[in-house]
Model the fold of this input.
Amino acid sequence: MGEEAREEKAGREETETDRLGLGPLRIKQSPAIFKFTVDPILLAAFARIRPAASVLDLGTGAGVIPLWLTGYRGIRQVTGLEIQPEVAALARENVRLNGLEERIRIITGDLRNPPPELTPGGFDRVLSNPPYWPAGTHPLPEAPCLAQAKFELSCTLEDVIRAAAFFSRNGGRVAFIHLPERLTDLLSIMRRYKLEPKRLCLVQPKPGAPPHRVLVEGEKLARPGLKVMAPFPIHGPDGEFSPEMKAVYRGNELGKQ
Done:
């Protein structure tokens, strides 16, 4: 059995199919690997992307961002890079499930040693929902795939930002979602790699609560000037999804209802 065939077999084991958003998209997930959160959806809704733009998603996981961008936001071509073969296989299966093979390409590879299919400076937009915590800061999950997705075991935040700068064209945009407690790291490393922060949005569990996520978009080789958006609440005071979050789930750009 070839390497890709083994990946596909691993990706099919013990999966369950769920709805992705409020539209027609579906996604297969494996509890043995991990289940997606709202974070990649927020990032896919936050990034400003023209339909004809070439897009790269670093650490694509099960393919949530490529599916969302092509299926709901009309982006014509998205590439996802994923280091874990069994997770990349699941992403490919999700692409087929939604009939998006002509729009989405999933590549198995390491962003620290990029595969030759990816062209330096070849993308208009680069996105990433990277691991949030350095190794050793919290107990690791037992599932190896989940541990690698949540902790900086195979790449650091600097590795991700360096790769985003490497693949972005001059004047291209990059976007990340991360923890507010690491915002200083995020912004300082972006500037180190000539990715000037241009838009920032703090995400709250509900209005008045401390933010638990931050969205940042930067431009390669741009002049300074950061726009801070109004905080984005996921839930309303009643505990239900906020109107803003419902609009995102319908496939709208974050901040537009």
User: Anything to note?
Assistant: The helical segments are 3-12, 39-46, 64-71, 85-97, 144-150, 157-167, 183-192, 243-249. The two ends are 49 Å apart (CA to CA). Residues 1-12 have pLDDT under 50 and may be disordered. The first strand starts at residue 16 and ends at 19.
